[in-house]
Amino acid sequence: MYDFLEQSNRLMKQAADIGQIREEVAELLSAPMRVISFRIPLKMDDGRSRVFDAFRVCHNDALGPTRDGTRISPDLDLDECKALALVMSVKHAAGRIPAGGGKGGIAADPDELSDREYERLCRAYIRHLRPSGPDCDVPGADVGTGMQSMAWMLDEYEQITGRHTPTAINDKPPIIGGSFGGYEATGRGVFEVFEATAKDIDFDMKGARVAIQGFGQVGSVAARAFQSAGCKVVGVTEKNSGVFAGDGLDIDALIDHYQEHGSLKDFPGSEPLGNDEVFSCDCDVLVPAALQGVVTKDNARDVRARILVEAANAPTTLEADEILTENGVTIVPDVLANAGSVHLCQMERTQGLSDHYWDREAISAERCKRLVSSYEAAAKMAEQHKLASVRLGAWIHALKRMEEAILTRGWV
Q1: Confidence of residue 326 (pLDDT cuts 50, 70, 90)
Q2: How far is Cα 69 from Cα 359, in angstroms, rounded to an integer?
Q3: Engineering a disulfide at 300: which of 90, 181, 196, 323 sits with its beta carbon 3.0 to 4.6 angstroms away?
Q4: How many Cβ atoms are within 10 Å of 296's Cβ, its own excluded?
C-alpha cells in the first residue's frame, strides 16, 4: 500500500543528506510545527446531525505564513495532510515564495451533500479553525473545493473578525479580491515547466505524442496547452473511461463530449484506453494528472515515454523514480510542474495587500516567468550535485532556503 507520508519523509531525508542540511534543521523539518485536529457537528437538511473530522497541518513558517490547500474528500486523514503540507513547504521554498506549507480539510464526500449542507460545512471549517488569518495561516482551494467554497470561507472569516481581509483566504473569485487566471494556473503551468524542460534537454515538442491520466481541471487545461503548442494528445483517461487515437484527439471536442456525457467513452474516432493502460501506451510524454502513487515499481518499466510530467501531487513512487531514471526517462517533478497555482496564490496575496489588481495577461506572463525560474534553479542545483534527478535538485534548493531562514531566526 502506498504511504504518501513515508515516501515524502524519505525523499526529504535523501535531499537533506545530499544537500548537507544541518542535522538539527532536518530534524525540525521532519515533522510539522503545528497540527490541528477537530470535529465539526453539522445539522443536515433533513434535521439529522452528523459529525465530520477535520484537520489543518502547518509544516513550517520560517519563510512566512503557512498557506494553501483545503481538501474535502471522504478518505482524507491526518497523515495525508502532513505529507501534503511538507510538499507545499517545498513548493513554496523552491519557488522563492515567502511562505510555509499548509494543508488541511474535511473528511467528507461533497457529492453526498446538498448545496446548503456543503456551504454550512465550509463555513463551519473556518469557524472551528484556530489560528488562521493573513499573517498566520491562509487556507486555499484543493480537491473538493473551489472558488465558491473559498468565497464562503472568506465571508465567514470576515463575519467573525468584522474586517474586510481578502488576504485571509486564497483562490477566491476576483470580484471579492481574488486573482484572474486561477482556473488555468496549474494546467498551464504544467505545460510551461514541460516546455522549459524540453528546451533544456533538446526535446522537439512539435508532433510529440502526449498521454494524460486525469481529465479534470488540471488535465483538461494542460491538454489544451499541449495541443496548442503543436503536440498530439493521443491518450486521455479519467476515473471511469479513457480514449486513444494515434493521430491525436481533438481536445476541445473531447471536453465537450465529456461535459455532455460525463464520460470519455464512445468519443468519435477513438478506441478505449484503460486507466492502467495509459502508463504503457505509445507516447513521448506521459502526464499523470490525477492521483498520487500511480506510477510504481510494478509499471515503471512499461513506461514508453521519454518525459514524465507530474501534474498530480506525488504520482511517482521513489522506487519507480529510480527505475525511470535508469531507463533514461526525464521526470519533471510535481513541486515544479504543478506549482502554477502556488505562484498564483502569491500574486493573489500581493494584489490583496496592495489593493491593486493585475490583468490576466500580466498574471500569465509573471506565472510563466516564475515557474521557469524555479525549474532553472532546481536544474542548476541538480547539476551542482551531479544528480540526474531534477526532483532532488528542487528539494535540495528548497531545503537550503528553509535552512537559511531557520538559522537566521536562531531556531536551532
Answers
A1: very high
A2: 24
A3: 323
A4: 15
Contact 379, 390 (CB under 8 A): yes
Cis status, amide bond into 166, omega within 30 of 0:
no
Question: Which amino acid is present at 42?
Answer: L
Residues 14-25 pLDDT 10s:
999 999 999 999
Angle subtended by helix axes 360-384 and 185-200, to nearest 10: 40
Residue 101 pLDDT more than 90? yes
**Residue range 182-214, pLDDT digits in tens:** 999 999 999 999 999 999 999 999 999 999 999
Rounded to an integer, what distance in angstroms lies between the CA atom of residue 388 and that of residue 305?
17
Domain ranges (residues) in the chain: 31-176, 179-412
pLDDT at site 228: 96
- What's the fold here for domain 179-412? Rossmann fold (3.40.50)
- Catalytic residue at 103? yes
Helix (H, G, I), strand (E, B) or coil at 54: strand
Write out the three cell numbers for 357.
489588481
Which is the catalytic residue, given 103, 172, 232, 400? Answer: 103
CATH of domain 31-176: 3.40.50.10860
